[in-house]
């Protein structure tokens, strides 16, 4: 089950000092590729206003801004003040503390919204998706990158790496082991792809769908707000 938002905020405050290093190292650098792949897809839409929810240290925002010259307005929101401090150090000034289920923006404000590896952490995923739907303009698109469970021969190796290896490596470099135990737990408990797409539909998105990436380790979800 998703943890309360205050638990998540405190957890990410604790790991902020090692977050980027561990993200890049533990994903074997694939996190750069996943974000850039999404950023290039967003660039095709030529959005004017962008919102990144659960922005963390700002890597998704930065990747998108580098690829999308059409963006004139951007915001990032997160519940972890320490993560937002990291984002600001990277030159991202329009980032602020807010919960995904209570966004401080008017309805129909953004052309595009993104969530990179944050949806599984939301206490009320449907409520967050409905709130994002509200701030999207008609015809706008939500993109979500999220970890998923691969199938076939890779699955047992992935599970071993996720459950046994990642928390130990995190502990060795000084990050709280419980944070990366939670990472594994949250991925294992996240609903299957079909259920996530159904959640998009319940929130009002149509059409919507999913695209597996890197043998299904990550899935790109997308949904449009009807015009």
From TrEMBL:
<protein>
    <recommendedName>
        <fullName>Demethylmenaquinone methyltransferase</fullName>
        <ecNumber>2.1.1.163</ecNumber>
    </recommendedName>
</protein>
<dbReference type="InterPro" id="IPR004033">
    <property type="entry name" value="UbiE/COQ5_MeTrFase"/>
</dbReference>
<keyword id="KW-0949">S-adenosyl-L-methionine</keyword>
<keyword id="KW-0489">Methyltransferase</keyword>
<keyword id="KW-0808">Transferase</keyword>
<comment type="pathway">
    <text>Quinol/quinone metabolism; menaquinone biosynthesis; menaquinol from 1,4-dihydroxy-2-naphthoate: step 2/2.</text>
</comment>
<dbReference type="GO" id="GO:0043770">
    <property type="term" value="F:demethylmenaquinone methyltransferase activity"/>
</dbReference>
<comment type="function">
    <text>Methyltransferase required for the conversion of demethylmenaquinol (DMKH2) to menaquinol (MKH2).</text>
</comment>
<comment type="similarity">
    <text>Belongs to the class I-like SAM-binding methyltransferase superfamily. MenG/UbiE family.</text>
</comment>
<dbReference type="Pfam" id="PF01209">
    <property type="entry name" value="Ubie_methyltran"/>
</dbReference>
<dbReference type="GO" id="GO:0009234">
    <property type="term" value="P:menaquinone biosynthetic process"/>
</dbReference>
<feature type="binding site">
    <location>
        <position position="57"/>
    </location>
    <ligand>
        <name>S-adenosyl-L-methionine</name>
    </ligand>
</feature>
<keyword id="KW-0474">Menaquinone biosynthesis</keyword>
<keyword id="KW-0830">Ubiquinone</keyword>
<dbReference type="GO" id="GO:0032259">
    <property type="term" value="P:methylation"/>
</dbReference>
<feature type="binding site">
    <location>
        <position position="78"/>
    </location>
    <ligand>
        <name>S-adenosyl-L-methionine</name>
    </ligand>
</feature>
<dbReference type="InterPro" id="IPR023576">
    <property type="entry name" value="UbiE/COQ5_MeTrFase_CS"/>
</dbReference>
<dbReference type="InterPro" id="IPR029063">
    <property type="entry name" value="SAM-dependent_MTases_sf"/>
</dbReference>
């Amino acid at each position: 089950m998703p943890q309360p938002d205050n638990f998540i905020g405190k957890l990410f405050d604790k790991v902020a000092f090692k977050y980027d290093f561990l993200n890049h190292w533990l994903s074997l650098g694939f996190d750069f590729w996943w974000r850039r792949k999404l950023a290039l897809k967003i660039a095709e839409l030529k959005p004017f206003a962008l919102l990144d929810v659960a922005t963390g240290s700002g890597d998704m925002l930065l990747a998108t801004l580098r690829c999308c010259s059409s963006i004139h307005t951007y915001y990032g929101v997160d519940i972890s003040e320490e993560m937002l401090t990291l984002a600001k150090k990277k030159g991202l000034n329009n980032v602020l503390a807010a919960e995904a289920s209570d966004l401080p923006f008017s309805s129909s404000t953004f052309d595009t919204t993104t969530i990179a590896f944050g949806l599984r952490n939301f206490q009320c995923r449907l409520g967050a998706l409905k709130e994002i739907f509200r701030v999207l303009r008609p015809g706008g698109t939500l993109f979500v990158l999220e970890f998923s469970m691969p199938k076939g021969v890779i699955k047992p190796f992935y599970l071993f790496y996720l459950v046994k290896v990642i928390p130990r490596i995190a502990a060795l470099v000084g990050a709280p082991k419980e944070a990366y135990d939670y990472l594994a737990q949250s991925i294992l408990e996240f609903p299957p792809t079909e259920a996530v797409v159904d959640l998009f539909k319940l929130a009002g998105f149509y059409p919507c769908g999913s695209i597996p990436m890197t043998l299904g380790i990550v899935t790109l979800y997308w949904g449009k707000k009807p015009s």
